[in-house]
Q: What sequence folds into this?
C-alpha cells in the first residue's frame, strides 16, 4: 500500500496524506497537505490526545477555542486540548494551502523539547519558540511548489529532528495502556505500571501533555463516539455510558457536548462521515 494518498474532496479542493515510516511512525500519525477552496466553512477538532503542527501558505485561517481566537497566518502549534476547537474557512477568502503534522499522543516532545503540559489547551504561533525551527521549516517548504514534494521534505525534516533529539521513554506505552483501558481506576494503573500516581502523572505531563485522568477522559469519549457512529443511533446512550464507566447519562452527555460541541443526536446528523478527530460543519 502506498504511503502517499490523494483524496479529492471536491473539484476545487484536495488532500494529500503521507504516512510516515520507520522510527518516525512511532511519533507521527500523519503528515498532510491541502490546497484549494474547502467545500465546508468550519472544521471542529475533537480532542484525541494529539498535538498538531500547521504550516500555512495561503489565506489566513481563523482558529477559535474557549478562551482565544486568532488567525493562523504562518506556522502554528497546538498542544493537547480537553475541549473542542474550531477552524474557519471563509468561502470568499480565496485559496487555502496548508501542510501539517498530527503527532501521536506522547509523540511531539522530541520536536518541541518543552514539557507538553505547558501547551495544555493552548495553540500559538511558533515564533514563540526560541529556536525558530518551525519557522525555518516554513521558509524552506515555501520554495517547493508540488504538494507531494513538500510532504516528503517535511518528513525528512522531522526524521532529522527525531534523530537528533531521540529520547527513549515509556510514555507511549503508558498512553496506550490508558487508551486500551480508559475505565481503569487510578489504583489499577498504579498497580499495573508499578509507578506511584505522582510519578506516573509527571511522566505523562511531560511527554503527553495531560495526567492519566485527563487522558482517560479523552480516550473514553473517543470510544463513545466510535460506538455511537457504529450503532447509527443515539438511543442506547445509557448502555454506552455504563459500558464506558460514566457516572450517569447526564455526565456522559455533558462530556460529549464539551468535547464535540454537539449532542449525540446532532453528531449523527452530520452530512459527512465523521472521524474520531475532525467534524466538518
A:
Amino acid at each position: 500500500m502506498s504511503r502517499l494518498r490523494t483524496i479529492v474532496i471536491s473539484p476545487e479542493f484536495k488532500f494529500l496524506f503521507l504516512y510516515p515510516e520507520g522510527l518516525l511512525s512511532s511519533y507521527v500519525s500523519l503528515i498532510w497537505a491541502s490546497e484549494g477552496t474547502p467545500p465546508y466553512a468550519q472544521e471542529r477538532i475533537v480532542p484525541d490526545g494529539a498535538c498538531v503542527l500547521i504550516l500555512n501558505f495561503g489565506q489566513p485561517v481563523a482558529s477559535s477555542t474557549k478562551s482565544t481566537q486568532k488567525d493562523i497566518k504562518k506556522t502554528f502549534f497546538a498542544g493537547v486540548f480537553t475541549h473542542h476547537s474550531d477552524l474557519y474557512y471563509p468561502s470568499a477568502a480565496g485559496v487555502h494551502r496548508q501542510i501539517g503534522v498530527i503527532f501521536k499522543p506522547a509523540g511531539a516532545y522530541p520536536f518541541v523539547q518543552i514539557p507538553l503540559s505547558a501547551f495544555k489547551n493552548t495553540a500559538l504561533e511558533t515564533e514563540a519558540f526560541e529556536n525558530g525551527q518551525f519557522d525555518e521549516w516554513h521558509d524552506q517548504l515555501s520554495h517547493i511548489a508540488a504538494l507531494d514534494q513538500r510532504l516528503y521534505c517535511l518528513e525528512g525534516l522531522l526524521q532529522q529532528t527525531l534523530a537528533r533529539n531521540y529520547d527513549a521513554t515509556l510514555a507511549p506505552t503508558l498512553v496506550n495502556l490508558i487508551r486500551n483501558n480508559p475505565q481503569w481506576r487510578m489504583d489499577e494503573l498504579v498497580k499495573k505500571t508499578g509507578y506511584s500516581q505522582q510519578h506516573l502523572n509527571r511522566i505523562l505531563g511531560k511527554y503527553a501533555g495531560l495526567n492519566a485522568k485527563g487522558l482517560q477522559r479523552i480516550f473514553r469519549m473517543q470510544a463513545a463516539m466510535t460506538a455511537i457512529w457504529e450503532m447509527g443511533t443515539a438511543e442506547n446512550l445509557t448502555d454506552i455510558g455504563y459500558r464506558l464507566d460514566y457516572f450517569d447519562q447526564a455526565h456522559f452527555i455533558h462530556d460529549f457536548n464539551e468535547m464535540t460541541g454537539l449532542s449525540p443526536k446532532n453528531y449523527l446528523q452530520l452530512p459527512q462521515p465523521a472521524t474520531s478527530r475532525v467534524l466538518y460543519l
